[in-house]
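Course assignment 3, question 2. Fill in each field.
Student: A.L.
Task: Predict the tertiary structure for the chain below.
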Amino acid sequence: MMNGLVIYYKMAAARKLECLNENFLTCSICREEYKDPCTLTCGHTFCKGCLGEFLKTRQDAIRDKSIPCPYCRQMTRVPRPDRPVEEWVKEIKPSFLIQGLLDTLACGENTDHDTENRCHPCQVLDESHPANSYCQDCDVPLCERCVKMHASLSGTSNHVIADLGGAVKVTRRQRCWEHNEVMDFCCRDCNKAICPKCCIIYHRRCDSVVTIQSMMSEMRNVLTHNMGLITQSLDGTGRSLQRHISQIDKVIHNKDKIKSQIRQASQKAIDVIKQKEKQLLEELNEMTEKQSGQLRRWLKSGEIDMQMYQQYIEYLNQVLKSGSETDMFDIYQICQSGAIKEATDRDVIFTDSVRDLKLIFVSEIDERKLHKDVQLGRIQHNVYDIMDTRLGKIQSGTFDIMCRPVLHKTVGIKVDGDRKQPYPCDVTVLVVDGEETLVVTDYNNTCLKSFYTKNNMSPHSKLDLASNPSSVTRLRDNQVAVSLWSHNEIVIVRVTPDLVLQSRVTTKKMYTCLTALSPSTLAAGCCDPPCVDILDMSGRVMRSVSRFNSGKNLICSPSYLCATDKGNILVSDIGSQSVYCITPEGDVVFTYTPTGERRLSLPRGITTTSTGHILVADLSANKVILLTAAGEFVRDLPTSQDGLNNPRGLMFCNCKLYVVEHYEDAVKVFNCSIPQ
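Answer field:
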């Protein structure tokens, strides 16, 4: 039995060596057993031949005079980089440890194979016969003669003899490390294989101790089932890898496509600039030729005048020298007639004309902004594609920045069933099936209301909410989003023009104000903590702006938001008493924090016009302030003189300004268009 145990341990060692070979003694390039292994400075080992072939494909290695590791890319300096590249690998020291393991494995495999397939009793007698059977009880291989002897002896006649099936290796049965007996039993309670002695000593109180043989069917079913699951995982992973490979091909193809588009856009810009350059140069040549021709004509005339002046000077010198009274009287008469004065006056005119003919070039390019204002296009990721999608405008007509707002109508929002005095906070306007529809948040009555005109009637709709609504923004022509004052929730409502609850979006923060950057992206303002978050329609925060990238921090208590045509976010901040415009990435476009008489006291609602101008409600000052798209003050529009009282929420649509007043239960509509 002791000899059988020795053989068992040798076979176990052989299996360990085989596992070592499969996992650690295989080159990661050729996937075969190492041949002439060498180890780089990073610790990774490869065949010298494989490393040499890999090195031929790497131009950067030749340039850097180093060998890059095919696995981790770390560089290994070669001792003599001046030698040919083919000799670099030969100079790397061989891996004696790996080679020693390979030699040991080869020796172990040969010895164990011979021992494993030889009859054990014959080996004890210093004989060697091939084994064709195996005694499961003795755990030894047997030849045909020893099988007969086994069957004839009373002590071994009842042993189980298994046929090895020719070249099939012997399968050993596991023995108990404590009692050195075959573990034929299984304790289901402890979930472990045990020997007969373990059954008596340690598992007498266990409820379910069975033979392993009786569990073969169950084990085979479990293993088959798990093999099926693993096969499914293998197939699924394979399909996933194929999809990833396909996606990589698509990404590379898309890269080439976008590269072509960028080059086309760049070429178009170059062509436009070249065309502008050609036009300016042609215009310069034309104007220069015209000026040069005129100057040449004046030059010819000037040369003639110079000859005439020279003749006058010579004649006067001669007359003065001669002292002839007759000649002097003749020249005196010429001077008195004004002929010489007229010639000198022409010279003054000629000189002035030359001074006025200078050309100048007036550049229309602001070099300070050239680097950021010249736009060929943008390369966008999917998230940014969503965020930069513009909402369709429903505005029409022409906004007149110098108009005097005229009160067009007043829409009362008190309806049957209101338990309290209405308190409107915000308003938006939609056109549903050609009908202009007002959607108003009623804070006191915890509801959303819509008002429209149909068949010369003025019906309304009311949708009760779980909490007090504060802000409403248009997502699509028939859909709005509503923020709740004291709830971690945003409500999505369909407008038909009646109000229908579509979904509730749970958020991690309580948002007081909203604006839509696209039908699937929202910007939401929060007071605790002060921030402006970019959300998707599941409520996930894609980006949070709590402090500007420039280091400034104006976000104190955002009360109203509005999206611009360029995808930026206008913020009316009651805490900092400011209006500022930021990008979704957190960059500041402008800030408006006036002082003195124009100082903002309670900035509330904010909206944009069809021309890009900005309207801001100042609640305490009883006015709406008009700013340019760049945040510069224009004028007050409208004011208390126009019937405005404590403006809160604002919406501009179709050259009409819709104003929610703080203490009124109505929405006032002002006409701000150019009179026809």
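Instructor remarks: Confidence is low (pLDDT under 50) at residues 1-13, 166-171, 348-355, 381-397. The chain has three domains: 2-116, 218-356, 406-671.
Grade: pending
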